[in-house]
Amino acid sequence: MTLSASIHHLKRKARALHRKEQIPLHQALDRIAAAEGYRNWSLLVARNPADMAGALLGSLSPGEMVLLAGRPGQGKTVAGILLAIEASRSGRRSFFFSLEYTLADFESRLKLLGIAPPANALLHFDGSDLIAADHIEGALGFAPSGSVAIVDYLQLLDQRREKPVLDQQLRSLRTFARAKGVVLVFLSQIDRRYDPATKPFPDLGDLRLPNPVETGLFDKAFFVQGGEIRMPAAA
Predict the structure, then answer these.
(1) CATH number for the domain whose boundaries are 53-230
(2) Is the pTM of the predicted complex or chain greater than 0.90?
(3) In the chain, N or C: fewer CB atoms in 10 Å?
(4) How many Å apart are CA 158 and CA 213, to the nearest integer?
(5) Which DSSP letter does residue 207 get?
(6) Distance CA 173, CA 65 (A)
């Protein structure tokens, strides 16, 4: 079923309806979804995965640090790639830092997704083994406010012994993001003990954190399960 507008624009319509009629935002979202032929907002988002990146991008603000977490195979890397592509297509500088992929791997993944790289120079891939807070800050030093950087992934940032511990890196990156107005999105693993049979979506308590991290350093957290992203209702 084709949507009348992008999820991002439909969400803006829901916010306007929420303000105009003074109804809860979740009710406004469901009414917009019903007008598009869906039973509720969650179903609309789940049935339009390619447009989820637009909705996710529209919920992010300059200077934020964000988690995008999920178990292997649930779609978090795809969501991160789509987010980087969507940001560049909307005219924003975007970066994909990966300690997992080479450039060839990244381009191959785009092909599998049926995505042609943006016809501009706004998307930058970085597969350096040196990726950590200092490397990311250096690479984003001249990035304009509103730029979006995806980090793949959180738990690998302090794998090299000479790098500061993860919590220290995140505190440095938080200060940097605030000062520069860039958005930092960290792909993150979920603990293997998480059982979707007992809880439909993971949450902050399910993060796999070999080293202690203050989760309050993140402004928002999104969780991917079965290809669907659970987003804060008020995002």
Answers:
(1) 3.40.50.300
(2) no
(3) N
(4) 12
(5) B
(6) 8
Q: Please write the tens of the pLDDT for every residue from 58-70.
A: 889 999 999 999 9
Which amino acid would we find at residue 226?
Answer: G
All structural domains of the chain with their residue ranges:
1-47, 53-230
State the Cα–Cα distance between residues 206 and 224, nearest whole angstrom: 12
231, two tokens: 């987003």
User: CA-to-CA distance for 97 and 140, rounded, in angstroms?
Assistant: 11
Task: Give yes or no for a contact between 182 and 140, defined as CB atoms under 8 angstroms apart.
Answer: yes
Q: Which residue type, as a one-letter code, is found at position 5?
A: A
Instruction: Evaluate whether 160 touches 154 at the Cβ level (below 8 Å).
Output: no
Q: For 147-181, what is each residue's pLDDT tens digit?
A: 999 999 999 999 888 999 999 999 999 999 999 99
Cβ neighbours of residue 199 closer than 8 Å, sequence gap 6 or more: none
Q: What does the DSSP assignment read for 38-66?
A: -SSHHHHHHT-GGGHHHHHHHT--TT-EE
